[in-house]
Amino acid sequence: MLARMSTETSAQTLSFLRRGQPVTLRHVAPERTLLEVLREDLHCTGTKEGCGEGDCGACTVVLGEAVDGKLEYKAINSCIRLAHSVEGLAVWTAEDLAAPGGELHPAQEAMVQCHGSQCGFCTPGFVMSLFGMYQNTKGGQGITRARAQVDLSGNLCRCTGYRPILDAAQQMGGLPLPAGCGVDEAATVAALQALNRQKPAEGAAYLRPTALTPLLQLRAAHPQAQVVAGCTDVGLWVTKLHKRFGQVLDVTAARELRRVETYPHHIAIGAAVSLSEAYAALVSERPQLQTFAQRFAGLPVRNSGTLGGNVANGSPIGDSMPLLIALGASVVLMRWDAGRGRVAHRELRLEDLYTGYRTNVMKPDELLCWIKVPRPQAGEFMRVYKISKRFDDDISAVCLAIRMVVESGVVKEVSIGAGGVAATPARARQTEAALCGQPWNADTVMAAVAALRAEFQPISDMRASAAYRHTVLGNLLQRFWLESQGLQHINLDTLNAATLEALA
């Protein structure tokens, strides 16, 4: 009762666009989810609660944001998205697509024509993912089977077997758009700009500053505030652990942290850059990461979550960290130095950020603001492997990333990141030592496999046994060796392409 009373006194007003018109809700507590607000306050019960943890996609809605005068659309999970994080954005739900006269939007009509719905519980979420795809492809044009599978990876269905839903994704672009179904983008952008001219109330419980310096000053003033950067993990604390927050500090509106900057020797990814955008930047530098990037959760999670949040969270089974460790990434921590009246920062290797299970070296007034990733160098061979029970939308049992440079048959450089095998994401330093300076041949690989298996003592849990993880670690290093020698048929990219071709 005391926790609920403190939450009620810290509630504030929430404003966003729906159907092109401003919606204002008062007394919205900082930990309320967008799904709760939609269903309970706006009675949008077409948006369903399935898993409550961003896995099933039944709660999918689409957000619109004005960026450089144009609308950007993102399908997201409303069940784990804190409601105040959509302040000043546009929100579309399943109730918002049909024309006033009842004519269906092409995303809906295609599902009807292709028999893409059976029990119907997941259907609103699929329709919203299709709507997001429709808007992002200029009316559903040129959608391939592979694109449809990637964009729908965050939606689960127990009935249809997915084939008719994939058919709907490819067919909706050929259906007419009824009058009243389209988005007036110019009017929506103008309405969003007007909405965002409003100033937040003093003493707000949900703090979402639009610039870096105010963000750091707020962190210094409110070190007890819960920091969020996409809510995909903190949202679980609300839905599963029933946590309540007196104050929340959201980093995702700080414009400096929403950028990916390219320099001669590295790229710098801001802490507010979504996982979708961050991985797109990494893939543009290293195309071989494409499949791994698409296997990080589903698209709605990647659209909400941020790379900075994933790294700061420090889960030992988080997929980003082993990859970044292997790439030699570093993090920039920043704070407001009140004594000097300026921003202070320090930089450290990513693997040195963590001190234990979900603990790190950050001070109470510090924020992780940038991730710096070295650019590829000549002769680099890079692979990252994710082992999970499901191919799509699942958490790793083991993740292993390896980057190597071989010159004249000798390992000149090597860096290895591992996840799921220790209390923190870890760098395999002993294995690196066993490889560096050695001839790149089968004997060296066998010695390195033994070193890698000896370096970690994984635990058994619901995802895998310790023995399985121990065995897989070595097997993945052997796979890396085989791929470096040109063996391709063991590559999941090849197998997935064949599967998609069979479905077409």
Q: Quick one: overall form?
A: globular
Secondary-structure-derived class:
alpha+beta
Helix content: 25-40%
- Average pLDDT, rounded to a whole number, is 93
**What is the strand arrangement across the widest sheet?**
9-10-15-11-12
Strand content: 15-25%
Total discrete domains: 3
Give a quick account of the main beta sheet: strands, pairing sense, barrel closure. Answer: 5 strands, antiparallel
CATH topology of the largest domain: Ubiquitin-like (UB roll)
What is the H level of CATH, i.e. the homologous superfamily of the largest domain?
Answer: Beta-grasp domain
Q: Give the count of helical stretches.
A: 18
Keywords:
alpha+beta; Uridine Diphospho-n-acetylenolpyruvylglucosamine Reductase, domain 3; 4-stranded antiparallel sheet; 22% strand; 19 strands; 3 domains; disordered N terminus; single chain; 18 helices
Any overview of this molecule?
The chain has helices at residues 2-9, 34-41, 106-113, 123-136, 145-151, 163-171, 185-195, 212-221, 234-239, 275-285, 290-294, 299-304, 307-313, 320-326, 429-435, 442-455, 466-484, 492-503; strands at residues 12-18, 21-28, 60-67, 70-77, 90-92, 206-207, 226-228, 248-250, 260-262, 266-270, 330-337, 342-349, 354-356, 359-360, 367-374, 380-387, 398-407, 410-419, 426-427. The chain has 504 residues and is α+β, with helices and mostly antiparallel strands. It has three domains: 2-195, Beta-grasp domain (Ubiquitin-like (UB roll)); 208-374, Uridine Diphospho-n-acetylenolpyruvylglucosamine Reductase, domain 3, CATH 3.30.465; 380-494, Enolase-like, domain 1, CATH 3.30.390.50. A five-stranded antiparallel β-sheet has the order 9-10-15-11-12. Helix 3 packs across helix 6 (163-171), helix 15 (429-435) packs antiparallel against helix 16 (442-455) and helix 16 packs antiparallel against helix 17 (466-484). It is globular, with a radius of gyration of 23 Å.
